[in-house]
Amino acid sequence: MKNNINSIEESLEAVQRASKMRQSRFWALSIIWVVVVVVAILFFINLLNKFEQNRISILQNSERLENVTMRLEIMTKENKELFRRLIDLEEYYYSQLGETEKKDKVQDIARRELSRQYITPGQKQFLESETKTFVDSNRFEYWYLEALSKDAPTAVEYLNNAIRLNPGMEAAYCARGRAYKTLKDYKKAIDDYSRALELNSNSVSSLAERSFAYFKYSYDKNLSAVQEKDALENALKDAENAVKMSPDYWVPHHYLGFIYLKMKEFNKAEEEWGKAADLNIGLESTAGSLENLGLVYLWQQNWQKAKENCLNVSSVYEDLAWNWCFLFISADKLNDKKLAIEAKGRWDKIKTEDDIEVLKLYLPVELHRYL
After folding, report:
1. What distance in Å separates the CA atoms of residue 303 and residue 65, rounded to the nearest whole number?
2. Contact at 8 Å (CB) between 176 and 156?
3. Contact 218/262 with Cβ under 8 angstroms?
4. How many helices and strands, by DSSP H and E, does the chain display?
5. Quick one: which of 8, 210, 324, 328 has the most CB atoms within 10 Å?
6. 313-345 tens-digit pLDDT
7. Which sign does the torsion angle of CA 88, 191, 272, 243 carry?
8. Between the CA of residue 36 and those of 46, 194, 320, what are the distances in Å?
């Protein structure tokens, strides 16, 4: 009996041990599964985070690429404009600084002026890296070179100082003549160009600029008919002599176009502006000469030719105000309403009071209503 009881107790203990072992395995497996699930969840969360980070990074890189591309495109346009202006300035200073010893300084002066103007800080740094800062201890050169980068009234003041220090430099009178011309004081401009020619009778630039000063002076309302005729004849004489002295210099041809236009010799005006465009290397001034052909065609009432010329000019250089005015007029005369509206919109957007004032002198009276 006792043996049977012991046997039952042992069996019960064995069952209890087996039950405990099963419970232990169950909890162990449960813990393992919990750990596995937690690890898996953390893994997937981490994976999702990395995916989101990569997605954001890709979007940011895409935006950066777009921004960089846009900046490069803008800088390309800016640099094209910058170099075009640099070429134009160098061409002008070569005509101004006639002395041989000054010609090696032309690029320095041109870049110096550009660095004072509208360019971006990056472009300014570029210009400064391309050339040494132009510094001259000579007080005359200081006043003269500073004047070249100033507005017209300040330039006159600076050039007055320069001329007091060195009254024998032709280029200073020529530069002050330009400033007076900007100020529309054409009589003083003529006097300065005349003084420059006394100092250097071979200065084609001074002769050409005096020609245009005479031309502008011929519009002075205070002149008598005889004085107006004399001013126009002087303008023609100076321009023709400048062409004889330097046939390949585009400026006197450009000015001759205006002179012949006022004389109503339209075929000659067209020829001279065509020559100026062929000889010129600057994009804007070349387009400007071609733009002026529109004046000829409008006077001749050749609306179709005026329209075609305007479209050709705008395909080369879009920002010429007069060209949009001429296109507005010719398109309206041809009853091309859509083009006329577009051209009028561009003209109204970029025209200035000075444009209107000058075109009132150059256009037939019956076309003034378009201004």
Report:
1. 48
2. yes
3. yes
4. 16, 0
5. 210
6. 888 778 888 999 999 999 999 999 999 999 999
7. negative
8. 15, 99, 75
